[in-house]
Write a structure and sequence with these properties.
heterodimer, A: MetI-like fold, two-stranded antiparallel sheet, about 0% strand, B: about 300 residues, mainly alpha, MetI-like fold, 2 domains, 14 helices, transport (chain B), MetI-like (chain B), MetI-like_sf (chain B), transmembrane (chain B), transmembrane helix (chain B)
Amino acid sequence: MTAMGLVHDTALPVRTGRGTLRRVLGAIPIVVFGLYVVAGLFGPLVVDYTPVEGDLDDRLLSPGSVLTDGSTALFGTDALGRDLFGQVLYGARTSVIIGALVVLFSGLVGIAVGSAAGYLRGTTDVVVSRVIDVLLAFPGILLAIVIAGVFDRSLAIVVIALSVTNWIGFARLSRSMTMSLREREWVKSATVMGIRRRRVVTRHILPFIAGPTLALATIEFAGAILAEAALSFLGLGLPAASVSWGQTIASGKEYLASAWWISAIPGIALAVLVICVGFTGDRLTRHFGRRQ
Amino acid sequence: MLPQLARRLGLMVFTVWGALSLTFVILRIAPGDQATVQLGPEATAADVAALRTELGLDRPVFLQYLDYLGSAVTGDFGESYRFHDSAMTVILDRFPATVVLALSATVLALTVGLLLGVLAGRSPGRLTDRVISGCTLVMQAIPPFWSGIMLILLMALTLRLLPSAGSGDLEHLVLPAVTLAIPFTALVARITRSSVAEVTSEPYIQTARSKGLSERAVLTRHAVRNSVIPVVTMVSLHIGTLMGGAVIVEQVFAWEGVGSLLVSAVGNRDYAIVQGATVLIAIIVVTMNLLADLVNARLDPRIRAGVTS
């Protein structure tokens, strides 16, 4: 399956000019992405929200309504009277944490497998390529659905289910880069000097893979967040007690006619995050100069 | 071409075997086998043991695996305990709906995506390009389950133009097909854009222009034809993504296809259906990839000759 090679979206140089404005505009996605991370990590410390408690008098209030306890529900409330703003904030934490865990886990596995295949070549490479072929026969989300569905719901299972196909991108990238890097002068010199293989890979090859891998990690992070939301939308994500955007979107589907905001707002939050992460990833990809 | 094709077919068989085995392993290591799931928590140990014997679950795992492979080859994935029918029959019953959905989404995405991509790619950096690129970025970022719900809100609940859920006739097809097509259209547009932009800077386009061909002729006859190759490759690599998207979109719109069947089967732990549907989808993906490579070979003589550029 890998024989024909991949054709990637190559970013063409855009005409320069009006530099400062462009730079400010270009920084927006990165800042917004940062805000999500900060909101996800520290928001729950500031905003008090309990997923189980809600005042039934406050059911299905539209965004901006005042609740019975005197506070304002910025994003409205859901069918159980729970504040939607809190849900979005806690959902951001779930997304950011799961996205980061998936990228970390699959990145480590992918780099290890990919660089081994690219450096050792031969049988290792063939085995790795065949395993990837088999995994690519399944739509990523399909394997995630099956794995998350048949095992008991937990954070670990969600991370594993999403990593099963996520590592492939990292493996392919580090494999192809290792293959070309191992022919470079400094790597050959190191090998001739009798430096151990593991050390050659970690000291003389991996540092050069780091940049493009970071760019890829950003893009995979966005993918992981989308996939997590899809899983929890289907009711196969984290245990029901935790808050996740997908879950909130699914719960709002019933009340679409009377309370559109329950489904709409978390989806917007999700899309904005994915767009900003995507922009950041594109910037990083361009920065590291590799047409990926 | 022939030895290449034979090699590809061999790899395909291997991949399908791998897919079969992977599914087997996942369902094997899942907590609770089919017998315990089927009888529920109230069943006595004796009942469970009896059913386990009946289903052959008490035999050595390796024998079960061989058995499973043997019957899978003939398309037999066992009986669904929910439908009281052969799993394959249930799946094939739902299969046409998924094909209709996936095909209409593909046609929609290819038409709109190619158009947008050519429009954007022939003048990179200009306003048209900026607008289209911006739109495609957003289209790729919205999750299909959310855009589906928003389409229901707009088209079914607010404007009351289309039904919100169900399957069957054309009316029911529109919203799921559009939902499924959104990210795919963006993908096609983005690849077409960069491909057209790259091709238009090639010397042979200069030649075509300088010999006095109209811009339209240059674009359609020389540029687009050559930009289609990466589009076909990329689209075929994303057939899996499309099938995955179909699983979710079917669930949103209660479209009675293999996807929604699979999701409910996972929820009910109806393992026969889960195995059958997963393997079927894997086979479709692998076959489509092979077909796309063949189409590519027809389009690009360099590939046909086995030359790597």
